[in-house]
Amino acid sequence: MKKAVFLATFLAASLLVHAQNDPALYSAASGSVVYLLHTINLSSSDSARPELWKRYEKLAGKSVLDVPLSVASGSGFFLDVDGTILTNRHVVTMENLPRARASVIWWMDNILDKDFSAAFSSSERVAMQKDFQAMVLKARLTFQALLGTRNLGVVTEVAVAAENEPDLAVVRVTDGSFRPLRLAASPLIGPNLVGARVFSLGCPFNLEPDVMHETRAVMMRQGTLSAFRKKDPSLEHTAALGHGSSGGPLMTPAGVVVGVNTAGSDEKSTSLAYAIDSVEVVDFLRKKGLMDIVLWNQRLPDIVASSASDSSGAGDVLSPQAVSVLFTSEPSGATVVADGRDLGTTPLTASLPEDTYNIQLRQRGQWYENVSMEVRGESPQRFSFAGRRAYAVGLDGMPPDSGAVLRFDSSLGTAIFRKGDDVALPSGDWNLTVEGDEAFDEVVVHVRVQQEALVVDLAPFQRTGSLRIGGLDSKARIWVDRRPFPNPGTDTLVLLPGVHAVYVWEEQVQPFDRLDIPVRADRSSNVTWERKRGHDAASLLLGCSGGGAGVVGIVLLGVGVSDRNTFFSVSGGLLLVCTAVLEWQAAMENERYESQRKYMLSLQSK
After folding, report:
1. Between 270 and 442, whose confidence is greater?
2. Residue 526 burial (CB < 10 Å; 0-12/13-18/19+)?
3. What is d(CA 248, CA 187) in angstroms, rounded to the nearest whole number?
4. Residue 417: φ, ψ to 5°
5. Taking the mean position of all CA atoms in its chain, how far away is CA 488?
6. Which residues pair with 147 in a beta bridge?
7. Are 305 and 191 within 8 A, CB to CB?
8. Coil vs helix vs strand at 357
9. Cβ atoms of residues 32 and 180 within 8 Å
10. Do 338 and 368 reside in the same domain of the chain?
11. Are residues 106 and 161 in the same domain?
12. In terms of Cα–Cα distance, which of 547, 472, 542, 482 is closest to 509?
């Protein structure tokens, strides 16, 4: 009850601070900021001691079973109306999952020992702690988004930066239409921003993992952009961040996003924070094949009118004027796609901001030439398209997580598709290039379309790289990107270009617990497994040592008792005490090994 009162008071005070800072900006922007949450759900059916947890629920007034428990959280914000969210890589990937699970286990151990020592006996608390640990290690993570009190459901990954790229990621939700925030254009980003007022928005709560996460509110902190750095992240500012603010926007008073918050200073004597500037963001989106999102984002209207007090200049880009455009096609019923966004089917009237658009029409059995269309001036504007008979073209051999763009060129024109689109082309000779996937860099595939459907196998055209893992032997098990791979021994693994998460496991040896290794096309990468002694090997050594000490101790104790020899009796007793300690250590090492083994073997099921 006290916690609920405190939270209510804290949230009310926070909202009052927002109003004092910039109420118009907070009102316009807070509805675009989402709370991203990793949770686990511990099922009561998996518990070995459900009766103890029922007692805990009655005493605590809440349950930890069959409810979502927060493991880690962060922030993000919408880039478009369709639910595309920009955030940090470290918010999405949960790179230190074992540590996050350990934190949840420690949290429950602490609660039972501190708050419930009188309600449960020592043996009951130990049993509950072991039961809780087993359930946490078994539970799967769920990654979801919340907008205020509205749960938007599970998010899907669209693009995640590699280790050598800025700390960025793009995810998506599909439940509804959303209010996006506009990224600042490149001419507005640079040293000229230093000294400007900026605002950090995010969900900086770091409560213990319980259902209290449902009370999240967007927080806004005001500060100054104190430096423009030459290294990433480039923006240094004083708009304070808290745990959970990572991935939130850094904004000007005009409501334009100049950066993505990623970290606070480790120095306790300072309140500096850091953000990745919007130019870096746009470059990241371009490399990931998401330039269409950028194009639509740059057409967004201002959310807050620019004022004289806004000296940053980041709000001086005028919102484009909307123009009414009529699309028709022969035959009708074609889907109109403008810069990657479906507008509807012909005949169609759409309101578009003034700009130049890449227009595609899609219709089963028909092909329309891609055109560049300029929308300017007075409404309405009219555009008509004529289709040609087209034949289905299937594409095999594309990497499963590729976000590449497929470009077909011929004398008839150019056709552009994305992975997952229904590809159909009129008869003729076409040259296919795959853009945005290193496995097909500088590769041109000739495709001849005749008057029938065909399938093109792209696998023979892929460029690959190799990975050599030093220290392997025939007993090791290997997973790459959570998929089992054959053990290559002293040979190399052949992989597609990109950053791959590699895990290696073997009895008696400490495993690779996710090592992100970049693999480049036509190049070889190398890594060495140090093969440190595993917990199972330590357990076996300690157990054998304890067993040996126990045998000697019993013999000495027997001789000492029968001969009434104090030295032998004391020595035997001490050896038996050492035996107990060694056996306890062996049991602990074995428990660590079992937890590690279950985690490694669960990778392929995630």
Report:
1. 442
2. exposed
3. 22
4. -135, 160
5. 30
6. 150
7. no
8. strand
9. yes
10. yes
11. yes
12. 472
* Domain final position from 260, 284, 308: 284
**43: Cβ contacts below 8 Å, ≥ 6 apart:** 65, 66, 135, 139
- Indicate whether 252 and 332 sit together in one domain: no
Tokens 């329309």 appear where? 368
Note whether 70 and 192 are same-domain residues. Answer: yes
Residue with tokens 């001789």: 559
- Is 193 within 8 Å of 65 (Cβ atoms)? no
Q: Are 240 and 263 in contact (CB under 8 A)?
A: no
Tell me if 128 sits within 8 A of 112, measured CB to CB. Answer: yes
In a domain, 39, yes or no: yes
Claim to verify: residue 220 and residue 147 sit in the same structural domain: yes
Does 314 reside within a domain? no
Q: Provide the 3-class DSSP secondary structure of residue 281.
A: helix
Q: What is the pLDDT of residue 334?
A: 94
Distances (CA, A) of 166 to 119, 170, 201, 260: 50, 12, 20, 10
The CATH number that applies at residue 484 is 2.60.40.1120
> Who has greater pLDDT, 581 or 431?
431
Q: Which of 200-209, 298-307, 329-338 has the lowest mean pLDDT?
A: 200-209
**552 lies in some domain:** yes
Instruction: Look at residue 306 and tell me if it is in a domain.
Output: no
Domain that holds residue 374: 322-389
Tell me: do 141 and 231 sit in the same domain.
yes
430/426 Cα distance (integer angstroms): 10
Structure tokens of 234? 């480039």
Q: Do 100 and 249 lie in a common domain?
A: yes
